[in-house]
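Escalation from tier 1.

The customer reports that the assembly of two entities below gives different C-alpha cells on two consecutive runs. Tier 1 could not reproduce it. I'm attaching the input and our single run for tier 2 to review.
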Amino acid sequence: MLDLKQDYFALFGLPVSFAIDMTRLEQAYLDIQARVHPDRFAHMPDTDKRLSMQWATHANEAFRTLKTPLARGQYLLEMQGVDPAFETNTAMSPDFLMEQMEWREALGEAREAADEDTLEELAQRLRASSRDLIARLAVALDEHKDLAVAADTVRRLKFLEKLQHEINDALTALES
Amino acid sequence: MAYSEKVLDHYENPRNVGAFGKEDEDVGTGMVGAPACGDVMKLQIKVGKDGIIEDAKFKTYGCGSAIASSSLVTEWVKGKSLDQALEIKNTAIAEELALPPVKIHCSILAEDAIKAAVEDYKKKHNG
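Tier 1 run:
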C-alpha cells in the first residue's frame, strides 16, 4: 500500500521544500496511519501484518523527520547528496564556537548556583537564536539553493539542540 | 559507558587547563566543535623563537573522552616542532586512551584543534 522507496515529501503528497504546511503534513500523516495501522490488519495473514507494521513505522519515521526543522533540513541535504558530517566536520566559525563556549560556561554556573532565572533566560536566548537559524536555513535551501550554507546552518542547529537538552535537564533537575 | 583508566585519569586530573592571550604573537589558537555531541574545544600553543612548542593550554566543554583527548594532546605537543605537531593523528589519541568507536569523534576533534592552532600561529607569522 505504501511505496517505501518514495521520498518522505512524496509519501505525504507535499512539495519538496523546507517551508512546509504543517496542517497538510499532519492531515496526510493521519490519513496514512488510518490506512496502514496494524490494528486494521489483525485479521489478515502474517505477511500482511508484517507489511502493515513496516508501513506504519515508515510513516512514523517520515513524519518525525519532516516535522522538526533540524531533521527536515538534514533530510533535504541528504536528498541532494550532502552529508552534514556531524561527527567529522569540526571547522566552524570561531565566533559561533566562542559563543557556544560562553553559553556552556553560563549554563554550568547557573546549574551549580541552582539559578532558575538565569537558566530560563538562557533557554530564551537559545530559542531566539534557533529561530534565526531556521529562517536562515529556509532561505539557503528554498531560495538560494546554497547547500554549503545550509549544511553549516544545520550543524549550528545541532549544537543548539544539544544545549537546549542540557538546559532542559538542568531545569527539570531543579524542579524535582 | 565505561571509560578507560587513562580517560578517567585525564578527566579527573586534566593537564594544562587554561588560556594564553589570544592576541599574543607567540600564541596559536584553535577553536573547533563537534555538532554530533555539541562539544567545543579551544586549544592554544605557545611557540618559542626556535619554532618549538613550549607550552599548551586547553579548555573543553564536552564529555569525558573529549576532555581527556584534549588534555592528552596538550602533553604530546610540548617539545614538538609545528610540523611534528601536525603529524599527531586521531588514531594515536584514540589508541592511547582506548576510546570506543562511538567516541572516536572526540579524538578527531583534538587532532583538528591542533591543526587549527598551528594554522592560526602560522597565519600570524607569515602574513
